[in-house]
């Protein structure tokens, strides 16, 4: 199941001191992080800026963006820095059903079905609440982009329907208002934990292209979901390995320093482990940010 990890391309380090300290899941595994104002950016001065004298007219995000640019200019050979905006999709029908029946019954019975006659959760759609959460997420992005001059990011997305739709509701209108081309990149390895749960079985490439024609689909993306196994759930180690492949590809091929990734609850925690951040849980429709240093192995 999944992609086999080869030799590491990069060593990753999540740099502390730039975003609000995140809660530890070890301290409270039920805690779910909602979106912080400013995505948790800590306003500060940066010694890398020319003459260490900053323009008081710049917003905290503009000063931070200048700092990231300076870090990349001054980076040693084999080093680069990116800011990852990590977002979770809004509420899906699978989330509602699990909350209704409880996790044990969900895991052992309901998650293995496509639906219950009232709702379908195979490649789950967003609920009305989930759509509102995605729209509200877009409002936060709009304020930060328009008022705080936060850099517009490269957009990446899981291929599962709930993430495709969350990205659309969050970014499509905002991109048009900013004169940006709305073309999220769909990457297979950003998807949620694979196997057994039908909510994590993706739709076909043709379906994705027909319903989300603006999206770019990465090379090698198969027509049918060839990774899903109905009788086996992916392990932590397998999930982390393919998430590392996704991160290494983004750091290797994406020229922009600011990257948005629309993904899932478990998948986001695997990403955190890859970049060296202690994992914590994101609320549906929420976004957080990390400054990540990558050093070529």
UniProtKB/TrEMBL annotation:
SUPFAM superfamilies: Phosphoglycerate mutase-like. Gene3D superfamilies: Phosphoglycerate mutase-like (3.40.50.1240). CDD domains: HP. It comes from the Eukaryota. Signal peptide: none annotated. This is Phosphoglycerate mutase. It comes from Apiospora arundinis.
